[in-house]
From TrEMBL:
Cited InterPro entries: aa-tRNA-synth_II, aa-tRNA-synth_II/BPL/LPL, Anticodon-bd, Anticodon-bd_dom_sf, His-tRNA-ligase, HisRS-like_core, HisRS/HisZ
Domain of life: Archaea
One function term, GO molecular function aspect: ATP binding
A Gene Ontology cellular-component term: cytoplasm
Gene, per the UniProt record: hisS
Residue ranges of every copy of the Aminoacyl-transfer RNA synthetases class-II family profile domain listed in the record: 1-333
Enzyme class label: ligase
Protein name (database record): Histidine--tRNA ligase
CDD domains named among the record's database cross-references: HisRS-like_core
Organism of this sequence: Methanolapillus africanus
């Protein structure tokens, strides 16, 4: 009986994994240079960790189970909550800011489709302990730098939920209605008819016609000129200190070389979760699932038993960027070493010396000389190294370039020096 992989999961074969590791390595290189340290959290956590953050409704999307101690557990659906839990458990005494990154697999029970899987990988960053514009600017600039490092050109949209929060604070909005408001806002950019639904909902919440118009004006406020958008937001909502901080964030982004973006006060990433700045990055070539990165500032630590600490972070959808990024891996030449039974021991010793610098395969199938050469061709080796009795006697080994057909004889030292560099 043939057993297939579970629905919504994938097998990554060696050639594809080479590309994935190459992209992962480039992202790691950038984030480490910015002073972030890696964190790994458990693959499964207590179910309550995620229901506290997202509500009981998320359970339908989870791979949750009871362990043998009858405890409610779940495979992690994302990594921000586990990192915040780890901070509360073990890092509250660390000097601020605490700068962390992670790259792990996550699990969600949902309908698989293009760019969306039940097991997926997320590369994320969390900067814990600073509510300053400098923190917001650094995190946004870091996200753009990471995507640029792997050849992804993203359309950056930046918003600030504190303005919308200020306006909604003038009506009674409970958690349930807050969720309804945000869902309508999220749909308004795609369906203008949702504007009528927002008006109706806000009217039910006893918002005045003037306030409703202000809320809709903020939601629809976008512009490539960030400073002009901030000025317009002040005209609508008043001289909020949060807008002063937002203006400084945009100013700092220019110092990072991030000048091409859209200020979009309608970016709706969850009013119950994010507290201030929010941003999303979209890329072409992905169809409807074109968002490759999203983040912002939030407060979760107090929810998990810690202090009132602000964090700013983002998550990159690794599987999505793999569809459009530069997957070129650094080329490392490979060698298939061809030998005879009489020279097998010496060939293994030589292969061990060469493996300090390059991948080397020796025959473990008992193939004859001709079959070993055919295998080298099938395996797409870059070089064939012949270690026969004649080569051992002369001390010169025949090295054939499989692409050009050129064959040279090299001493042991010359052979090692060739691949050492």
């Amino acid at each position: 009986m043939e057993i297939s992989k579970p629905r919504g999961t994938r097998d990554f074969l060696p050639e594809e994994m080479a590309g994935r590791r190459s992209v992962e390595s480039k992202l790691r290189d950038v984030v480490k240079k910015w002073g972030y340290g890696e964190i790994i959290t458990p693959t499964f956590e207590e179910l309550e960790l995620f229901t506290l953050k997202s509500g009981e409704g998320i359970i339908g999307e989870l791979y949750n189970f009871k362990d043998k101690g009858d405890r409610e557990m779940t495979l992690r659906p994302e990594l921000t909550a586990p990192v915040m839990r780890a901070y509360v458990n073990e890092m509250q005494s660390f000097p601020k800011p605490v700068k962390l990154f992670y790259f792990e697999n996550c699990f969600r029970y949902e309908r698989p489709q293009k760019g969306r899987f039940r097991e997926f990988w997320q590369f994320g960053v969390e900067l814990i302990g600073s509510a300053k514009p400098e923190a917001d600017a650094e995190v946004i600039a870091l996200a753009m730098t990471m995507l640029n490092a792997v050849g992804v050109k993203g359309d950056l949209n930046i918003g600030n939920l504190s303005v919308l929060r200020h306006l909604l604070s003038q009506v009674t909005v409970n958690v349930e209605n807050q969720g309804k408001v945000m869902r309508i806002i999220d749909k308004m950019t795609k369906d203008p008819e949702e504007e009528k639904n927002l008006t109706a909902l806000l009217s039910e919440l006893n918002a005045t016609p003037t306030l409703i118009e202000k809320i809709k004006a903020i939601i629809l406020l976008t512009g490539k000129d960030g400073m002009a958008a901030v000025v317009k937001a002040r005209e609508i909502a008043g001289p909020l200190p949060e807008l002063d901080a937002f203006e400084k964030t945009l100013t700092l982004l220019s110092a990072y070389g991030v000048n091409d973006y859209t200020v979009n006060f309608g970016v709706a990433r969850g009013l119950d979760y994010y507290t201030g700045i929010v941003f999303e990055i979209y890329a072409d070539g992905l169809g409807a699932q074109k968002q490759v990165c999203g983040g912002g500032s939030y407060k979760l630590i107090s929810l998990f038993g810690g202090g009132d600490v602000v964090s700013t972070g983002f998550g990159i959808g690794f599987d999505r960027i793999m569809e459009i990024c530069d997957k070129t891996a650094a080329k490392v030449p490979s060698i298939v070493l061809v030998s005879k039974p009489e020279t097998q021991k010496e060939s293994i010793i030589l292969a061990g010396e060469l493996r300090a610098f390059v991948p080397v395969q020796t025959d473990i199938m008992g193939r004859n000389f001709k079959a070993q050469m055919e295998f080298a061709n099938t395996a797409k080796a870059d070089y064939v190294l012949i270690v026969g009795e004649k080569e051992l006697e002369s001390g010169l080994f025949s090295l054939k370039n499989m692409e050009t057909g050129e064959q040279v004889s090299l001493s042991r030292d010359d052979l090692l020096n060739k691949f050492k560099n």
